[in-house]
Specification:
This is Methylamine utilization protein. With about 210 residues, the chain is mainly β. It has 1 helix and 17 strands.
Amino acid sequence: MRKTAKLPASLAATLFSVALFSGHAKAADLTLTVRGSDGKPVPDAVVTVYPGGQPTKGPIKFDWPYRVAQQNIQFTPFVLIAPAGAEVSFPNLDKVRHHVYSFSAGNKFELKLYGREENRTVRMPAVGVAAIGCNIHDQMVGFIKVVDTQYAAKSDASGKAVIRGAPDGAVVVKVWHPYLRAPKNEKTLPLAALKGAVAQDVAIDLRAPAMTH
């Protein structure tokens, strides 16, 4: 009787793992801590993940409101992430009137003077950025980052942005901030793949804003 050749234990374990997980897409979590060149945390940086370097398919829905309020003579939030095609509301919560606009290519709009507790809505059709201002109050500055991936997050006061449930595998990861010194204010990270839980620090060089917010 011929004996069946036995596989080395390490190879057998590897093949078992492949058989066990093949056909099951595994999810990865990315925690990115964004710091300036001075080492201080940077809030309001937008992190986007593109599996395989491509936009995600199907409708994109985030769990925060697509809303930029005018409150205390400033835009709140300073940076909003919204999917391409989303309707963004602009409620006026101030006692004074505002005239909100954007001259950004693909997302130009103008909301002429409207008062307290009034609301206006604008569709954001183009992937990119809508820089927003107020014709009445020059100090009011805000930004809407319009994205085409469902894997996007904004850094908090500690500089941390967390993206959960991205598929394992090759990815392109980008960091955007309105004052980042780079083409289109965006930096692509040297992070080639995700697997499991990944935590990484990234340093970005910021220019001084033209106006405070």
